[in-house]
Amino acid sequence: MRKVPLSLIANVTAGQGAPKPDEFSDSGVPFVRAGSLEDLLAGKSESNLELVPAETAKKRKLKLYPKGSILFAKSGMSATKDRIYILQNSAYVVSHLAILTSKDNVHRDYLRLALKQFPPSSLIKDPAYPAISLGEIQGYEIPIPEEIDDQKRIAHLLGKVEGLIAQRKQHLQQLDDLLKSVFLEMFGDPVRNEKGWDKPELRHFGKISTGNTPPKKDPSNYSSRYIEWIKTDNISADSVFISQAVEYLSETGSIKARTVTKGALMVACIAGSVESIGRAALTDRTVAFNQQINAIQPELDVNPLFLYGLFKISKAYVQSHASKGMKKILTKGDFEKITMIKPPFDLQNRFATIVEKVEALKSRYQQSLADLENLYGALSQKAFKGELDLSRVVLPAESPDIFEEEKIDVEEKQPMEPSFELPAPEELTVLQTIEGRKSLLGKWLNAWLEQLGNAPFAAQDFMDAARGRLWELSEDDAPNWGAVEYDELKAWVFKKIASGKIKQTRNIISINEKKQFGNQVILRSRKSRL
């Protein structure tokens, strides 16, 4: 592993000025702005960007950058965001972006991942006026393995984990979308109120209070961890409940503060931008809170989880009641006059039951996401320090151009995914201990291998099925399923390979009608076709 300046491994250029609004068209080549990167990294298609027709490109002498070019912002606040994007198609690029086209001595995706690990934003001298010159970018050094195959191995390994992280994020978004669909199905649009529910003012939903700040000049108000002091930072758009506070009040400070108990809805009502107004989360403990938050302590005929779902769906409606000045404010007086639908309590409870089940599943996905992000962090640190044993990483299969004289076909077709039955234990009490679950996991692995047939063994598929079966058997009291079980599975799989019950092989491909091994490692049950 050696450090080299970017100029030795990539051509570094900048984009060009943007055409005028009337010079874009409904068809043409995408134009990428610095502000486009966030959406592109989130999955937005380049074809949905502004499109430049041929006559505009010719008139403005725009340079077309090829598919595979690496983009990141070099000026403006976007330069501080560390967004690294690879063009999926040829495109025109704005002048605020730097463009790297990789040379033959570097693997393109390795370069992207290295820039993600060592972001060029570290070159910014003044955060108030972020800017990086092309010369600074050209001289910026990153670590790089001598062998390009090792670059490919690192990119392949980290890319796999990136894919799993993206998959988990997608699952979480799908669960949020599910709850939104359920809410709209049960209650209709809360603003239009086509189902004709009662629509009282918020003051009829519960006691509304605005937080405050005990005097900072008296340090004794903040001298102990007696009670959390919640701020808008603790209200996340992605979480039902508030996060742990950084700052705490003392017993003396708590007397001067305003507090709410478990089940209160906290709503951000003072913010620099309207987007933050209306962000809401529930309390699952007694807390104090500051003056940027209005809280609703629900009455007995209001289910807190329904109230949370109502605010989640109605955020834009809540924002419309905020002041129109530079600093967005929703005063307590205006807040408590907002009208909201209030369906029957039993229907609220039915929705809340669904929320609880979905949130339990979300919690597990969030833990899985956190584990994967930690894994990525650990792997990337080792990879870019040259501390990974890359000899154990299979070189990913290439995707070569196919010519008439050299046609490559994958001969071995994957069988249809079989359906597996994981037997229930005689006593469900075994689910509540680590040893019991380890024993059950071993039995399930044997059952899985017995039913595997010709299908390749995939550890993730087995663990997903085992986890789902565990939750099914445990119903609402499912135990945590984490690193212990994953480590146990790894140990068992290695034992099965050593004992010959699982065979490690590779896929078969055909090149010019000659069969040979490919680069994909496959695990199969010994009794199945190899």
UniProtKB/TrEMBL annotation:
<dbReference type="InterPro" id="IPR052021">
    <property type="entry name" value="Type-I_RS_S_subunit"/>
</dbReference>
<keyword id="KW-0175">Coiled coil</keyword>
<keyword id="KW-0255">Endonuclease</keyword>
<feature type="domain" description="Type I restriction modification DNA specificity">
    <location>
        <begin position="9"/>
        <end position="174"/>
    </location>
</feature>
<keyword id="KW-0238">DNA-binding</keyword>
<dbReference type="GO" id="GO:0004519">
    <property type="term" value="F:endonuclease activity"/>
</dbReference>
<dbReference type="InterPro" id="IPR000055">
    <property type="entry name" value="Restrct_endonuc_typeI_TRD"/>
</dbReference>
<keyword id="KW-0378">Hydrolase</keyword>
<dbReference type="GO" id="GO:0003677">
    <property type="term" value="F:DNA binding"/>
</dbReference>
<dbReference type="GO" id="GO:0009307">
    <property type="term" value="P:DNA restriction-modification system"/>
</dbReference>
<dbReference type="InterPro" id="IPR044946">
    <property type="entry name" value="Restrct_endonuc_typeI_TRD_sf"/>
</dbReference>
<comment type="similarity">
    <text>Belongs to the type-I restriction system S methylase family.</text>
</comment>
<protein>
    <submittedName>
        <fullName>Restriction endonuclease subunit S</fullName>
    </submittedName>
</protein>
<feature type="domain" description="Type I restriction modification DNA specificity">
    <location>
        <begin position="195"/>
        <end position="360"/>
    </location>
</feature>
<dbReference type="Pfam" id="PF01420">
    <property type="entry name" value="Methylase_S"/>
</dbReference>
<feature type="coiled-coil region">
    <location>
        <begin position="355"/>
        <end position="382"/>
    </location>
</feature>
<keyword id="KW-0540">Nuclease</keyword>
<keyword id="KW-0680">Restriction system</keyword>
